[in-house]
Design a protein that fits this description.
Largest sheet: 2 strands, antiparallel
Oligomer: single chain
Structural class: mainly alpha
Number of helices: 13
Helix content: 40-55%
Strand content: under 5%
Length: about 170
């Protein structure tokens, strides 16, 4: 499988040489120390095309330097930021991804709790109550894991208002 590159992409990805190489293969990426995922993104090689070159995200981690910060760009695979890209809670927070994006990556509320998320760190993710519900937050979780003060800080709502959202 080869990807056709524009002249600008070709020089950006492969550099200048005696012969302009206008294609990109997975072998090019595997054998190069200079072609990594950041470089390909910088030169606007579409992720959908890159997936055609190599559908196994583990190979992208191994040979092209993919990291948790690339998770949104790797949604075509999809790449799970924790399992596939070896990320942690700080990486999830720094993604600034929407609940829709996180859900598409396979992230769940329960999984985030399992890696150390608590009501105080939830605020840093920046999701709405509906976003957390979309990721699997349940009324039982609110009852079990949140004080009234934490609910106010995380959702700017009272416990009664939040439980009303679950009933609605």
């Amino acid at each position: 499988m080869l990807i056709r590159l524009s002249a600008a992409q070709s020089t950006g990805v492969h550099g200048w040489g005696s012969k302009l190489k206008t294609t990109l293969s997975w072998k090019d990426i595997e054998e190069s120390d200079s072609i990594d995922f950041d470089r390909l993104v910088k030169w606007e090689v579409p992720p959908k095309e890159l997936k055609k070159l190599q559908p196994d995200v583990r190979q992208w981690v191994l040979h092209a330097g993919c990291q948790p910060r690339h998770a949104v760009q790797l949604m075509d695979w999809p790449a799970h930021p924790i399992r596939d890209l070896h990320g942690d809670l700080a990486d999830i927070i720094s993604l600034k991804a929407s609940s829709k994006e996180l859900k598409a990556m396979g992230i769940t509320y329960a999984e985030l709790r399992a890696i150390g998320m608590n009501p105080e760190t939830m605020r840093l993710v920046g999701l709405t109550l509906q976003g957390w519900i979309d990721l699997g937050l349940k009324a039982e979780d609110v009852d079990r894991h949140f004080t009234d003060a934490q609910l106010g800080r995380v959702f700017s709502m009272t416990r009664n208002a939040i439980m009303g959202c679950f009933r609605a």
